[in-house]
Design brief:
heterotrimer; A mainly alpha (292); B alpha/beta (252); C mainly alpha (372); A: 292 residues; mainly alpha; ABC transporter involved in vitamin B12 uptake, BtuC; two-stranded antiparallel sheet; two-stranded antiparallel ribbon; 3% strand; globular; B: 252 residues; alpha/beta; Rossmann fold; 6-stranded mixed sheet; 4-stranded antiparallel sheet; 24% strand
């Protein structure tokens, strides 16, 4: 395979990371918490599609829509039950709770679907694009890149142009002041979780189609890497998450191809550490100071 | 020579000059007041003095040595201790341990001495216990030494914060609104305590306060800040009669 | 008065130390007694219980050392397994290499413990220096990253020993057909399990667990320990009283890594080890022990570790739900101890009400808790 093919596959993987990273970054910006369970929402989305298509024989598009609905509801419920009681608690206790939720989802999935991984039937029916003898781009890759681009444009417009979007910006800037201005903070946070989880469902559909396997831990590594992407781009920043996600996908795929497939993950994490040490707030992040 | 010399200090956050060209000088064993309406930059001055913020311009001298660029920990070791407007105690530690944490640099011993319980551990711990109890007694907190700090009532938490600051053996003590949330009785008591601290420990005190009875009662000199810059300074009684000061507080 | 206070303080701290180390020692003594009696009376089934004793000791060391970082210092580390991994591998490789040169098993293991512990401590120092400046969430995620990096790097090493010495290769697997069994010995074969002499004993594990309890008590009840807790409770206030925050974070982190490493060496000497064992899930499991026992509370950690380790093993049908149970425990514990939601507070009051003796106020209860 040629460099271009690795690069394009990296773009595709990176777009998925970007979708997941958006969920992380929006939740972090608005609720000031690291939703560790976000990656596992992807897995839930994947399993919903899997069940809908294989057991209930639904058409792919319906299955994906169903996954979006389930994940959105799940995200909102998780926030209400597990995170909202801890709104004023220390960040460490919120993080531990989120780890608990992540563990809960993984183990529930394991109890329902078993420990092994299942074969996932791709939701994409676009044919591969044969450019020449050496270079073929799969339908999944094409769809992934197109879908994420559309979502990102839509999300940017939503945040900057709609009333709800601006409320989200206001809450992320200063929760107390936003509340005084009549913004319903709890509702805004719920909406953020809903959007993030819906994006995770889409990410799940795309990820499981490109790498046609699904298991209880499917979401864990992509979730952690997407978090790395969000930090890379500057957590809290929407464009940062997009750039970070894409960059990370490309770095991962190129290091798999040219350095070592075993070490690719280690390289991705090393990138995170280097970024944080050079610029602790990420590429586009802003500094947050504690008031003394 | 003055104990503390602040020369033309400024700090800007983005485009906003929170503190603009402020100078003041505090003599040894002096009680000095820093007053001004809300948002005048008083606490920011404290944060500059203690190294939480680094001034964009100007110099801060303690005993003639520049403190600009030093970390908060180093500045404390050089001799400035402080309390906070919103009390910052070590909530899950006992009253005694809060003070012993303040004695951290007064009776040092190494990690290994602690782990292997060398003689220096026992010697220094005993000194710390004795010193901490002495300090607590001055503030009438010695009976509650084994309470968790967060279980003390508000007024006593303020006192404990002062004890903790004193434990670091400072030359200059900064008090950020020590009378906030106190009733007139408690405030009167606090005034006595502050004067007692000055006499007993021989240190200078720089305080931010809104309670004018406290300010006029114990401060020898004051500086008035308004919108980040100095409005006036001088002997307390004179300054408080200044019509500009009254305008700044009450408006036109 | 002063003298009395001093003695009182010392007595209280010493008492806690004695209770906690006695708890661990007592656990081992009682279980060994039970096992001996079972054998004497010919009751079968002791095998399973005996098999748990060494892992429990290792996990006690892991959990206690993690509590120093998470509970006492207040920084969430998700990469504890990384330090355990370093200890297990450096200590394990040392034992394999010196199997013939140091024939006395216990001596070799003792040196391996020192080698593994120091290697992990060194790793803690090297990793800690750059990352401990980061705050809360970032630090947590970077420790997770380091844990994974350590594991991935370890599983990329291949070491073969022959008369010419050691041949180390990185990311290039060993071709089994080129290995001459007579002259060459495979020390480390990437992701494959490592064959370490299995000479750890229950006695040694128990002694090390008790020592860990004592040393950690000494650390916490010292000037350094107070500095850790001050940093945890209020970083800005800690700086304001002259505590060098970075330095003390680093000291806590290194001590924690040291013990994780020592536990790791032990682990490798009663268990076959391969890098997948030291993954993120191991770090989380240890974190569950610490959180359930109570952050900063060594006694809680000891009880939680023993209890949570044995419970699923005893109730076999339950073991399927073990992780699920851990997850729920984590969430419920965090919400109950940290939430300021009206319904959580009300729930706690109600539960307290059930246990409260007659004629007592909540405030009195609170004081009693303090006195405990």
């Amino acid at each position: 395979m040629s460099f271009i093919s690795y690069f394009v596959n990296g773009l595709s993987l990176g777009s998925v990371y970007a979708l997941i990273a958006l969920g992380y970054t929006m939740v972090y910006g608005i609720a000031k918490m690291l939703n560790f369970a976000h990656g596992d929402i992807i897995m839930v989305g994947g399993f919903v599609i899997f069940t809908a298509m294989s057991t209930l024989s639904m058409p792919p598009i319906v299955a994906v829509l169903m996954a979006i609905v389930v994940c959105t509801v799940l995200g909102v419920v998780i926030e209400k039950v597990a995170y909202r009681p801890l709104r004023n608690a220390s960040s460490i206790s919120v993080l531990i709770t989120a780890i608990g939720v992540s563990y809960l989802l993984q183990n529930l999935a394991q109890l329902i679907f078993g420990t092994g991984s299942r074969n996932f039937q791709s939701v994409v029916s676009v044919p591969a694009w044969r450019i020449n003898d050496k270079l073929t781009i799969s339908g999944e890759t094409i769809v992934t890149i197109i879908v994420t681009t559309i979502i990102m444009i839509g999300l940017t417009l939503f945040i900057n142009k709609t009333k709800t979007g601006r409320a989200m910006l206001a809450v992320s800037e200063d929760r107390g002041a936003a509340q005084l201005m009549g913004i319903n903070v709890n509702r805004t946070i719920s909406i953020t979780f809903a959007i993030g989880s819906a994006l995770a469902a889409v990410a799940g559909a795309l990820l499981c189609s490109s790498y046609p396997q699904i298991g209880a831990y499917t979401g864990q590594m992509p979730g952690i890497k997407a978090f790395v992407a969000a930090v890379f781009g500057g957590i809290g920043s929407v464009p940062g998450a997009m750039i970070g996600g894409v960059a990370l996908g490309v770095i991962e795929n190129l290091s798999k191809a040219y350095i070592s497939s075993q070490l690719a993950d280690a390289i991705v994490f090393a990138v995170l550490i280097i970024i944080l040490l050079i610029k602790p707030t990420g590429l586009l992040g802003r500094k947050m100071n504690e008031k003394v | 020579m003055a104990l503390l010399e602040v020369n033309h200090v400024s700090i800007a956050f983005g485009g906003l000059k929170a503190v603009d060209d402020v100078s003041l000088s505090v003599e040894p064993e002096q009680i000095y007041g820093l007053i001004g309406p809300n948002g005048a930059g008083k606490t920011t001055v404290f944060n500059l003095l203690t190294g939480v913020y680094k001034p964009t311009e100007g110099e801060i001298l303690l005993d003639g040595k520049n403190l600009v660029g030093c970390s908060p920990a180093v500045i404390n070791q050089r001799g400035i201790a402080r309390t906070f407007q919103n009390i910052r105690l070590f909530k899950n530690m006992t009253v005694l341990d809060n003070v012993k944490a303040g004695l951290h640099n007064q009776n040092p011993y190494g990690t290994f001495s602690g782990i292997f319980r060398m003689p220096s551990y026992f010697r220094q711990e005993r000194r710390m216990n004795i010193r901490a109890m002495e300090l607590l007694k001055v503030f009438d907190l010695d009976q509650e030494y084994d309470f968790k700090a967060s279980n003390l009532p508000y007024g006593r938490q303020r006192k404990l914060e002062i004890v903790r600051a004193l434990a670091t053996n400072p030359k200059l003590l900064l008090l950020d609104e020590p009378a906030a949330g106190m009733n007139p009785n408690e405030t009167a008591q606090l005034m006595q305590t502050i004067q007692l601290v000055r006499e007993k420990f021989g240190i200078a005190i720089l305080l931010i306060e809104h309670d004018m009875r406290l300010v006029s009662g114990i401060c020898e000199e004051i500086t008035v800040l308004n919108f980040g810059s100095e409005l006036t300074h001088g002997k307390t009684a004179e300054v408080l009669r200044d019509p500009r000061v009254i305008t700044a507080y009450l408006g036109e | 008065m002063k003298q009395k206070v001093k003695q009182l303080r010392l007595r209280k701290a010493t008492k806690n130390k004695l209770i906690d180390s006695g708890l661990v020692a007592g656990f081992y003594l009682i279980v060994m007694l039970i096992l001996t009696l079972m054998q004497a009376f010919g009751i079968s089934g002791g095998y399973q219980l005996r098999g748990m004793l060494m892992p429990i000791g290792a996990y006690l060391i892991f959990a206690l050392s993690l509590n120093l970082t998470v509970g006492v210092l207040g920084e969430l580390s998700l990469g504890h397994a990384g330090f355990i991994c370093i200890g297990a591998y450096t200590g394990g490789i040392f034992s394999i290499l010196t199997e013939s040169t140091i024939p006395i098993g216990w001596l070799r293991l003792l040196i391996a413990l020192i080698v593994g512990g120091l290697s992990a401590a060194l790793a803690g120092l090297l990793i800690g220096i750059p990352i401990l400046r980061l705050r809360g969430d970032y630090l947590a995620i970077v420790t997770l990253a380091f844990g994974e990096i350590i594991r991935k790097v370890v599983q990329s090493f291949y070491i073969v020993q022959d008369v010419n010495g050691l041949h180390v290769s990185f990311t290039k697997p060993i071709d089994a057909s080129t290995i001459d069994q007579a002259t060459q010995k495979v020390i480390l074969n990437g992701p494959m399990a490592m064959q370490v002499p299995q000479n750890a004993t229950i006695l040694l594990v128990a002694i090390l667990a008790v020592l860990t309890v004592i040393v950690l008590h000494h650390v916490i009840d010292s000037r350094q320990g107070r500095a850790f807790m001050a940093v945890r409770d209020n970083l800005i206030a800690a700086e304001s009283i002259g505590i060098n925050v970075t330095k003390y974070k680093l000291i806590a982190f290194v001590i924690s890594a040291l013990f994780a490493g020592i536990g790791g060496v032990l682990f490798a000497h009663f268990n076959t080890v391969d890098p997948t064992k030291f993954d993120y899930n191991m770090s989380i499991m240890i974190l569950v022990f610490v959180v359930l026992g109570g952050l900063g509370n060594l006694r809680g950690t000891i009880i939680a570790t023993i209890f949570l380790y044995m419970l699923p093993e005893w109730f076999r049908p339950f073991s399927k739900y073990r992780m699920l149970f851990y997850a729920i425990v984590l969430i419920v514990m965090m919400i109950l101890t940290n939430s300021d939601s009206p319904w959580v507070i009300k729930l706690k009051e109600t539960v307290k009400g059930w246990f409260r003796r007659k004629g007592k106020t909540l405030a009195e209860d609170a004081h009693e808790e303090e006195a405990d």
